[in-house]
Amino acid sequence: MSPTDPTAPLLAVSGLEKSFGSNRVLAGVDLEVRRGDVLVLIGPSGSGKTTVLRCLNGLETPDAGVVAFDGGPRVDFAQKVSKADRTALRDRSAMVFQHHNLFPHLTVLQNVIEGPVQAHGVPKAEAVARAERLLARVGLAEKRDAYPSELSGG
Ligand SMILES: Nc1ncnc2c1ncn2[C@@H]1O[C@H](COP(=O)(O)OP(=O)(O)O)[C@@H](O)[C@H]1O
Ligand SMILES: [Mg+2]
Predict the structure, then answer these.
(1) Which residues contact 70 (CB under 8 A, 6 or more apart)?
(2) How far is the CA of 45 from the centre of ligand 1 (A)?
(3) Counting CB atoms within 10 angstroms of each CB, which of 12, 122, 129, 132 has the fewest?
(4) All structural domains of the chain with their residue ranges
(5) Could you give the CA distance from residue 20 to residue 94 in angstroms, rounded to a whole number?
(6) Ligand 1 atom 27: the closest Cα is on which residue?
(7) Which residues fall within 8 angstroms of residue 4, CB to CB, at 6 or more apart?
(8) Per-residue b/e over 101-111, b at no fewer than 16 CB within 10 Å?
(9) Top-level class of domain 11-91
(10) Distance from Cα 75 to the centre of ligand 2, integer Å
(11) Closest CA to 131 of 106, 149, 154
């Protein structure tokens, strides 16, 4: 399938495996997500839901499995994975954590620009302008200089 094929899966995962020592958490997970789909992983605490997400965004390295995301490379974790392939997977995915994981010593605006500036080398003025637009879009413009401890959980 060509990457521009609108019927091609946005995310295709097959045979995803991950163990922590003798604890075999993922024993061959297959899933496909198409553009516009919402996929819900349901399972008891400790069943591996978070581990699936962490394997897909590069916070964990799967022991095996093939992952292809949004027309990018088809990455086979049973082989040695190149840095470029790893970056390609991680660059265009994002994870909203159960806990906020904001930098407590940085303001809202500084938290929002940290990724683009540090990881993607976006010029600071450009990152600030974009962050201000995004904060306005979600009704948080007036919180730009607040610290995480000054925000409500929601
Ligand atoms: N970094 C880790 N080191 C060792 N064990 C881990 C690690 N991360 C998760 N686990 C174990 O993997 C299993 C699945 O955890 P997790 O993916 O967080 O489950 P869920 O999100 O479904 O509650 C649990 O037994 C957990 O203790
Ligand atoms: Mg979890």
Answers:
(1) 3, 10, 11, 92
(2) 9
(3) 129
(4) 11-91, 108-150
(5) 23
(6) 46
(7) 71
(8) ebeeeebbbbb
(9) alpha beta
(10) 24
(11) 106
Per-residue pLDDT of the chain (154 residues; tens, 9 = 90+): 455 566 789 999 999 999 999 999 999 999 999 999 999 999 999 999 999 999 998 899 999 999 999 888 899 999 999 999 988 888 878 888 877 789 999 999 999 999 999 988 999 999 999 999 999 999 999 999 999 999 887 7
Q: Name the residue with the closest Cα to ligand 1, atom 24.
A: 46
**Ligand 1 pocket test: which of 16, 19, 51 has the largest number of ligand atoms within 8 Å of its C-beta?**
51
Structure token digits, residue 14: 């097959």
Which residue, judged by its Cα, is nearest atom 9 of ligand 1? Answer: 51
Measure 136 CA to ligand 2 centroid, in angstroms.
30
Contacts of 124 (CB under 8 A, 6+ apart): 113, 117
